[in-house]
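User: Good morning. I'm curious how zinc ion would be positioned relative to this chain. Could you predict the structure with it bound?
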Amino acid sequence: MARTMSAAEMLDHLAREFEKARAPHCTTCRVPRTFWGPAPGPGAAGYWYMEQPGKCERGCRQVLTGLWARLTTDYVIAPPPRDVPVSRFSHVR
Ligand SMILES: [Zn+2]
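Assistant: Good morning! Here's the predicted structure, ligand included:
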């Protein structure tokens, strides 16, 4: 049974793991926006998606795609809290 992670924890985790795994000389890539969207299959209320990472010749895109695949496999991510706008969960720094 996968552990449940809150949306805020998910973003922290993703940001932390990306800092560790990103290409050492890349200074431009950021963790992409994540958003809550319709579930891919019947039965679930919704599902977290990550926007396509920007192109990076140093391979950050693959790093991010891999991190996201692992995160969404290892954890169940809770829906965004009802009283917090989903846009709050975007990573704009
Ligand atoms: Zn990069």
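The chain is about 30% helix and 15% strand. Helices lie at 7-21, 60-74.
Let me know if you'd like a different ligand tried.
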